[in-house]
Amino acid sequence: MLQSLMSLRSVACWLAVLLPLTLTHFRAFAEIDFDILAVLFLISSFKVGGTFDWVRRPWFVMAMAWWGWQLCCTVPPALHEAHGAGGALTQALVAIRFPVAIAALGEWVLPDVVWRRRVLWVTFGCAIYIATQMAFQAIFGVNFFGQPRFFDGTLTGPYAHPRAAAPLSRLILPLLMVVCACWEQKRLPQRCILQAGALLGAVAIMVLAGQRMPFALALFGFGVCALLYRPMRVMAVSGLVAVPGLVMLARLFSPASFHHLVTLTRFQLEHFSASPYGQIYSRVIVMASQHPWLGYGYDGYRHDCAGAADLTPPHWLHVVPSADPSFQVCVQHPHNLYAQALINGGLPGLFIFMGLIVCLLWAIWPGKQGNALQIGLFAAVLIQYWPLTSSSDFLNLPLGGWGFMLVGLALSCKRFPSRDGFPHT
User: Fold this and answer.
1) Where are the alpha helices (H) located in 162-309, listed in sequence order?
2) How far, in Å, CA of 164 to CA of 170, rounded?
3) Which of 359, 350, 357, 353 has the alpha carbon at shortest distance from 57?
4) Hey, which residues does 148 pair with through a beta bridge?
5) I want to staple 77 with a disulfide (CB 3.0 to 4.6 A). Which of 85, 92, 179, 339 is the partner?
6) From CA 26, how far away is CA 398, in angstroms rounded?
7) Is 271 within 8 Å of 323 (Cβ atoms)?
8) Would you say 289 and 314 are in contact if contact means Cβ atoms under 8 Å apart?
9) Measured at the alpha carbon of residue 52, what is the angle toward residues 50 and 96, in degrees to the nearest 5?
10) Each residue of 297-322: pLDDT tens digit?
């Protein structure tokens, strides 16, 4: 029996090592990876010698509450055979696999410092790979595969569409923290210059990416790291001072990046109600006001947005016509995790989801004794689930998968700290 458990865990460990690679380029395999991790962990927990202590973790209790409420809200549309309800109910039923996979990473696989180190090295390698592809595309106009910038001038990195900056904004935080802490521990004479150069390089690649939200979130993450890790504070101030200069350089060398970061951002903030995000959030409020307690069930925005077009908006919501007549407000999801929770589960669903995120952040909070890696992972998870931002669907891969993997890493580092070859404060 013990040998059987060890075999299961060995397979799970290799799946964890492959996970960053599948999230980078093989989305379908990433789904399978998470599924198998969850199943193997459940089998291991049921076998003799296994344990279900992990189900009592506050964050997992909240995840179960979130899952259960999603099911409760999705069953009524399914019974009435509403459009898409059958598929939505199936998706809601299997959604629990992602919290179980997080528990598998944090409680079963990554507590082993050797495998944790391997997963981290592969993760950091993927971050460097994405950044290198973006830098190459910024200099030569195409990535390694010959694909040019996106039609609007933003960098796509190793992809055909501009979806590289979002995961990079998360992955670059723990990578930067580990690199800077290494130089700090070795007491290199030039460590301050090296640390400042690393931070400026990270900021520069996010500026060149030309995507507003990843850039803003990366800056926020750098600030969180500097606040929690004293050696980074002077470096962070110098990086903050350099941001305007880097943005102005982008105006000369990458006008499209400057347009997205400054011109378009200013226009959308000044005319937010008429912007695409404003139109989507207005529709979310209109829909939520009609079903405030049970919402529309899983994937409710996708299936019920069009039917809400003729609903009467609340009197206090000043809905204005879209600035872009061709824009379709009914997209796949509401582009905000908390708006999605509100639509899917109503106000109770929103508060349960908020409780889940708070419990996750509390579980990985580095505290005063936290090392550089823990702080970087905490900052990455914080910006992944920050409420005031646009985002993909909560369970959508690859970005959602990067978030789940980072949570698993952070949980293992917090609950099973050790000097595993990475710097400590």
Assistant:
1) 165-185, 191-209, 212-228, 233-253, 255-258, 264-270, 276-290, 300-304
2) 11
3) 359
4) 142
5) 85
6) 9
7) yes
8) yes
9) 120
10) 999 999 888 888 777 777 677 667 66
Cβ within 8 Å of residue 45, ≥6 positions away: 51, 52, 54
- Indicate if the alpha-carbon torsion angle 197, 201, 203, 207 is positive or negative: positive
Asked if omega into 398 is within 30° of 0 (cis), the reply is: yes
pLDDT at 419 over 60: no
- Burial of 59 (C-beta count, 10 Å sphere; 0-12/13-18/19+): buried
Beta bridge partners of 142: 148
Beta-carbon neighbour count of residue 333 at 10 Å?
A: 22
Query: Could you give the angle at the alpha carbon of 20 between the alpha carbons of 11 and 142, nearest 5°?
Result: 145
**Rounded Cα distance, 242 and 222, in Å:** 13
The H or E element containing residue 3 is: helix 2-25
**Would you give the DSSP letter of residue 370?**
-
Looking at residues 361-373, what average pLDDT do you find?
A: 92
How far apart CA 51 and CA 153 sit, in angstroms, is: 52
d(CA 156, CA 159): 5
Measured between alpha carbons, how far is 332 from 350 in angstroms, rounded to an integer? Answer: 19
The answer to whether residue 83 scores a pLDDT higher than 60 is no
Helix (H, G, I), strand (E, B) or coil at 148: strand
Q: What share of the chain is helix, strand, coil (3-state, %, to 5)?
A: 70, 0, 30
Report the alpha-carbon distance of residue 26 to residue 29 in Å, rounded.
5
Q: Which amino acid is at 2?
A: L
Helices (H), 80-190: 85-94, 97-104, 113-140, 165-185
Q: Is the pTM of this model over 0.85?
A: yes
Average pLDDT (265-276) is 80
**Structure token pair of residue 142:** 């195409």
CA dihedral sign of residues 248, 254, 258, 261: negative
Residues 6+ apart with CB under 8 A from 1: 47, 48, 49
Rounded CA-CA distance 279/207 in Å is: 27
Residue 105: closest CA among 404, 421, 414, 423: 404
Work out whether the CA dihedral 23, 100, 48, 414 comes out positive or negative: positive
